[in-house]
Task: inverse folding
C-alpha cells in the first residue's frame, strides 16, 4: 500500500550562494523533505557537498527531514558525520559498500532511517536480503552524478517491480524516484508505484516554487 506522497526538492539545483534561503523558500512553497546529494568525484564523476553543509542548514533553522543520498565510496566512514550533522535518512548504493548489512546496521545504530539506491543498470536482487531492514528504496531514473538529466523510461518497470516487493513484504517502506522528475511525468511515476519524488532543476529552475510544486501535486 502506497504512503502519502512526498516531494523532496534536490538542493543540488539550488543557488549555493543562498542555500539556506533557497531551502527555506522551497519548503515554505509546499515541499516536504530536503534531498541532499553527496558526490565524491570517485564513485560518481562530480563533487558536491558534505556534512558541514547539512549542519549549516540545521543551524539556519531548517527543521524538515533531510534525505541524504550518499554517492560516495566507501560509505561507512562518513555516516556518523552526517548523523551528527542532522541527517534524517541516509541512503547508499550497494556497489559502494563492502558489507551492505553492516552499513545498514551502522545507519540504524545512529538512530536514522536507512535506504538502498539502485542505478538504472543495478539489479534488484540486493533487496532479497535487505528489504526487511530498509525504510526507503530509491530508484535512480538517470545515471548518478549530475543534475538536469532526462528521465530513463525503463525505470518505470523497475519501480513497478519494487512496488510489488514492498507490498508483498507488508512493511511501510517508501519508494523514492530521483532523476528527470517533472510535472509531465510525475503522474506516470506515481502510477508505477512511487510515493516519494525528488526534483531538482524542475523546481529550482522555475521562478515560482509554490506554483511548480502545486502543479506536481495536482499531477499525482
Result:
Amino acid at each position: 500500500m502506497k504512503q502519502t506522497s512526498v516531494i523532496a526538492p534536490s538542493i543540488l539545483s539550488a543557488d549555493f550562494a543562498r542555500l539556506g534561503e533557497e531551502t527555506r523558500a522551497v519548503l515554505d512553497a509546499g515541499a516536504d523533505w530536503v534531498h541532499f546529494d553527496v558526490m565524491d568525484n570517485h564513485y560518481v564523476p562530480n563533487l558536491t557537498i558534505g556534512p558541514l553543509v547539512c549542519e549549516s542548514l540545521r543551524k539556519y533553522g531548517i527543521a524538515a527531514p533531510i534525505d541524504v543520498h550518499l554517492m560516495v565510496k566507501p560509505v561507512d566512514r562518513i555516516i556518523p558525520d552526517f548523523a551528527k550533522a542532522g541527517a534524517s535518512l541516509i541512503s547508499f548504493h550497494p556497489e559502494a559498500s563492502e558489507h551492505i548489512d553492516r552499513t545498514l546496521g551502522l545507519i540504524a545504530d545512529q538512530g536514522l532511517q536507512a535506504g538502498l539506491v539502485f542505478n538504472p543498470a543495478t539489479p534488484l536482487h540486493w533487496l532479497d536480503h535487505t528489504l526487511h531492514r530498509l525504510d526507503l528504496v530509491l530508484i535512480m531514473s538517470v545515471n548518478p552524478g549530475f543534475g538536469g538529466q532526462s528521465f530513463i523510461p525503463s525505470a518505470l518497470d523497475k519501480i513497478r517491480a519494487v512496488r510489488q516487493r514492498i507490498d508483498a513484504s507488508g512493511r511501510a517502506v517508501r519508494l523514492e524516484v530521483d532523476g528527470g522528475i517533472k510535472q509531465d511525468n510525475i503522474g506516470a511515476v506515481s502510477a508505477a508505484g512511487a510515493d516519494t519524488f525528488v526534483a531538482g532543476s524542475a523546481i529550482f529552475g522555475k521562478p515560482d516554487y509554490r506554483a511548480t510544486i502545486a502543479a506536481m501535486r495536482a499531477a499525482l
